[in-house]
């Protein structure tokens, strides 16, 4: 059993790490690098994206034929972790949510004509995209609670309803929309593609949130007659639930990949400080109580890394990795919060201030146990697998 990365993937990982260390981390201390919503300023982003492209580090998850890096999921895990050692990292490399998940699912299931129109501009960084599924008093972790409806009309569909917490919607041009097309339990949902310039929909508000925001925020949007032609149905009518499962499987795991990088960075910042900070005649790193804190946080991150990499390996073998992704999602969400909270505690007032990015990370980290399925839902998924599979739940290999 070999836990080493293939040399060609490790070489890319090292290049990403060097770019992050040299070009991104130094920007975090400059308030001019941020926009009004605490994300990287668009002017700075545009410049750094050009540099990432020039370095051949652009959209590593996409095929080389589309201008990406052609990495397998295992390679994505290693490189995404390095990217998010900077809070600016993923979006600079065009590997941030929700574009990342949208690109991956479009590459898997869209027709060639749909890829040319809807996917390639996202890969090129020309447009942002959003995945519109979550609804007020409707679907969140459970897509079957979708109430937004698409009714058949001549040549297409007319959509009415409401969505909320749609990440990036304020800036997005390309949307993937989940709507109900029948009352069938399994085949009642359909995914549609639409452009922001089409009439029949509107942004009600950009919802204020606890943490820093992605570009375009998290929006509540209403549909009051949006018309979508048949050619913009993704997969087939009634395939919306299947498409959602295809998209969210890998997308949940890419969250874990990025969160591991953020957790590592938080510990790096703390370790640098406690190595020199003295209190009552002793450096903090030499105190047993402090060693216990950082040791526990580091161990939990490493457990998360192993679970994430196993799930990535299963996906590369052609499996669905539902169990593995749920395990990684639960453990990494907790490990991220543990590492950031530990860092803030050890930094003291410095960690609570904006002198380091740790307070930014702390506010961001709390969402990890909620987004793309609450931890409680993933535990329920695992319990159901255990009930069905019994002792086979623990088998080796890529099955199950």
UniProtKB/TrEMBL annotation:
The keyword Transit peptide does not apply. Residues 130-224 form the Acyl-CoA oxidase/dehydrogenase middle domain. Its cofactor is FAD. Residues 7-125 form the Acyl-CoA dehydrogenase/oxidase N-terminal domain. Gene3D superfamilies: Acyl-CoA dehydrogenase/oxidase, N-terminal domain, Butyryl-CoA Dehydrogenase, subunit A, domain 2, Butyryl-CoA Dehydrogenase, subunit A, domain 3. SUPFAM superfamilies: Acyl-CoA dehydrogenase C-terminal domain-like (SSF47203), Acyl-CoA dehydrogenase NM domain-like (SSF56645). It comes from the Bacteria. Residues 238-384 form the Acyl-CoA dehydrogenase/oxidase C-terminal domain. Keywords: FAD, Flavoprotein, Oxidoreductase. PANTHER family: ACYL-COA DEHYDROGENASE FAMILY MEMBER 11, MEDIUM-CHAIN SPECIFIC ACYL-COA DEHYDROGENASE, MITOCHONDRIAL-RELATED. Homodimer. Belongs to the acyl-CoA dehydrogenase family. This is Acyl-CoA dehydrogenase.
């Amino acid at each position: 059993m070999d836990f080493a990365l293939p040399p060609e993937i490790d070489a890319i990982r090292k290049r990403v790490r060097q770019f992050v260390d040299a070009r991104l981390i130094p920007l975090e201390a400059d308030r001019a690098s941020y926009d009004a919503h605490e994300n990287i300023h668009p002017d700075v982003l545009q410049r750094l994206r050009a540099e990432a492209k020039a370095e051949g580090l652009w959209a590593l998850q996409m095929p080389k034929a589309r201008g990406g890096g052609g990495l397998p999921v295992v390679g994505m895990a290693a490189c995404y972790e390095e990217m998010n050692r900077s809070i600016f990292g993923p979006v600079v490399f065009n590997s941030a949510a929700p574009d990342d998940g949208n690109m991956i699912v479009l590459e898997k299931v869209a027709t060639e004509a749909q890829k040319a129109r809807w996917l390639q501009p996202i890969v090129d960084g020309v447009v942002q995209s959003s995945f519109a599924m979550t609804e007020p008093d409707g679907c969140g972790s459970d897509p079957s609670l979708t109430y937004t409806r698409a009714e058949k009309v001549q040549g297409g569909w007319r959509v009415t309803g409401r969505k909320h917490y749609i990440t990036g919607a304020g800036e997005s041009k390309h949307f993937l929309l989940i709507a109900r097309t029948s009352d069938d339990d399994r085949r009642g949902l359909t995914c549609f593609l639409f452009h922001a310039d089409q009439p029949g929909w509107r942004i009600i508000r950009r919802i204020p949130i606890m943490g820093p925001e992605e570009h375009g925020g998290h929006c509540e949007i209403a549909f009051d007659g949006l018309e979508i032609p048949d050619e913009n149905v993704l997969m087939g009518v009634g395939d919306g639930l299947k498409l959602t499962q295809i998209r969210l499987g890998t997308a949940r795991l890419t969250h874990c990949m990025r969160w591991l990088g953020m957790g590592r960075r938080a510990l790096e910042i703390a370790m640098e400080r406690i190595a020199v900070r003295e209190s009552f005649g002793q450096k903090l790193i030499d105190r047993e109580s402090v060693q216990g804190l950082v040791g526990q946080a580091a161990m939990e991150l490493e457990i998360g890394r192993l679970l994430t990499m196993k799930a990535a390996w299963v996906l590369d073998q052609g499996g669905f990795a539902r169990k593995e992704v749920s395990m990684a999602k639960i453990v990494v969400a907790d490990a991220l919060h543990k590492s950031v909270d530990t860092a803030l505690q050890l930094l003291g007032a410095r960690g609570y201030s904006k002198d380091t990015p740790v307070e930014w990370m702390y506010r961001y980290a709390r969402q990890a146990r909620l987004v793309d399925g609450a931890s409680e839902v993933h535990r329920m998924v695992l319990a159901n697998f255990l009930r069905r599979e019994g002792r086979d739940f623990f088998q080796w290999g890529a099955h199950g």
